[in-house]
Amino acid sequence: MNLTLEIFSFIVGFLAIVVAITVHEFAHAFLADRLGDPTPRLQGRLTLNPLAHLDPIGTLLLLIARFGWGKPVQFDPFNLRNPRRDAALISIAGPISNLLLATAASIVLRVLLGLQYSVIAHTTETIGIIAAILISFLNSLIYMNVVLAIFNLIPIHPLDGFKIVGGFLNPSQAREWYSLERYGFIFLILLIFPMFGNTAPISYILSPALKIILSILLPSSGATI
């Protein structure tokens, strides 16, 4: 029974992060297209098909460690009217889409929980099982979307937060800021790699924001993955 529950939790969690990554990357592609750059459309990224957005290595890590990434959406700044500002808008579209999806999932989850206690509990066992699966998936979907949004807002290249910050700086400041791009992966590895015991430094950055947002979006009575 425990093995079955673990397999179920893995499948639900994997599907949730695939949906979160797909929506995240689609949002980047959609806004880049709307701002005048056809590159994502020409590369087949203007779709909600997960296969267009999943990175092979990132997906493999999702299966192994439940942590991975999608294929970055490429855009040509020369096609944008205001390259730095529009790059920031394209970048922030991903995290915003995740938070909007998490909010929508939270609303649906609360409706399902209300029905579970008032209606579904008095219906057939099959309907009750389906409702329980949906509730579990929605819990995981909310969690994964919030994590992906907050993680990508960290201002380190190649995360979205790096270009978002660049969009708020004046030209001279922006040049200095973008000169740090080459060190992005080093900073990111230092944040992800556990340094004190089994805790990665990035967890200290993400935890406060995650707790606040999840306390709002996840009903206290909802099941967690």
Automatic annotation (TrEMBL):
Residues 14-190 form the Peptidase M50 domain. It is a multi-pass membrane protein. Keywords: Cell membrane, Hydrolase, Membrane, Metal-binding, Metalloprotease, Protease, Transmembrane, Transmembrane helix, Zinc. CDD domains: S2P-M50_like_1. Its main location: membrane. The keyword Ubl conjugation does not apply. It is found in: Cell membrane. One of its GO terms (biological process) is proteolysis. One of its GO terms (cellular component) is plasma membrane. InterPro entries: Metallopeptidase_M50B, Peptidase_M50, Rip2-like. GO terms for molecular function: metal ion binding; metallopeptidase activity. The chain crosses the membrane at residues 7-31, 51-69, 89-109, 129-154, 183-206. The keyword Lipid metabolism does not apply. Its cofactor is Zn(2+). Belongs to the peptidase M50B family. This is Peptidase M50. It comes from Candidatus Gottesmanbacteria bacterium GW2011_GWA1_43_11.
